[in-house]
Amino acid sequence: MLSPISTGLLAYGMSGRVFHGPFVALNVGFDLKAVVERSQKKAHLDFPGITSYDAVDELLKDASIELVIVNTPPATHFELAEKALLAGKHVLVEKPIAISLAEVSALYNIARANGKHLFVYQNRRWDSDFLSLKKVIDSGRLGQLIEVQLRFDRYKAALSAKLFKETKGVPGNGLVYDLGPHLIDQAISLFGRPLSFSKTTGIYRENSEVIDYFHIHLKYPGQLNVFLTSGLLIAQPTPSFVAHGTLGSFQKNRVDVQESQLEQSIWPNDPQYGFEPDGEEGILTTIDQDGNKLVEFIPSDRGNYMGLFNAVHHTMREHALYPITEEHIAWQMEIVAG
What we know:
Blueprint: E1 5-9, H1 14-26, E2 30-36, H2 43-46, E3 51-53, H3 56-60, E4 67-70, H4 77-86, E5 90-94, H5 101-113, E6 118-121, H6 128-139, E7 145-153, H7 163-166, H8 175-178, H9 180-191, E8 196-202, E9 213-220, E10 224-231, E11 241-245, E12 248-252, H10 258-263, E13 282-287, E14 293-298, H11 306-318, H12 326-337
Parallel strand pairs: 1-2, 1-4, 2-3, 4-5, 5-6, 7-10
Antiparallel strand pairs: 7-11, 8-9, 9-10, 11-12, 12-13, 13-14
Helix pairs in contact: 4-5, 5-12, 9-12
């Protein structure tokens, strides 16, 4: 039997508590060994027996830890991932992995030089709504694709209480670096590298110093146009997943429930975890040979971020290819930083 991967978290804020801790703890292929908590010690309340270190360097000196999860603010990702790799750890980094393409290349080179794996945490590939879109596109029922729209909208007029997120000049700030990697990764996972792209950004919230709106146009072979849009002042979002092809159209709201469930301490081992509520099915509209319009409601598969952790385990223990590749991240960063 393969031994579990001893894992350490570099922080225990929202991401450690919601996006990482429950999955590492529940997956038999992992052992949640340690966490860095610089001030308040809370992780033991959720994970009794976990070791809590006061500093990153202390955790990195723990020889038993194989995998380090870098879930700290974006401006620290490069430095901490580099430090962990040089300490002989495999590394899973939250998006954005770094601030520039040069930093992305440097981290992957360091990983190779030290014989370690570098993973990027792109969990939105396992959202139920996105999986629904992918299933319809892969089925070919839309015919030749003409246009695909991916949106990630919120209404948050108030500035974040976390000042590092709202301060101009701090590397990795703004919506392009925050939600951009999610949408860009979804597009890349569907269609690969675009032939070209153009980007529009804006700042609209009162007193905001950082970008809070973007629209990115990706052009692909076969005249396919992909539009990625996100804003923080969208009071009434339109469908977040839209695809138009020569044979039909598909639309779906952003309704994946995983984040909200995890915040309510509904973990992945709960039978209701990851299932969308009734009435949120996607709508597939096709035209038959007689020109009649046919409408179907497409139920979504279960969303499950555990798929990402399973992929990490398969790569580390079974030498499988991690689905979010170095090329995917490099293409992503070209668009984010371009």
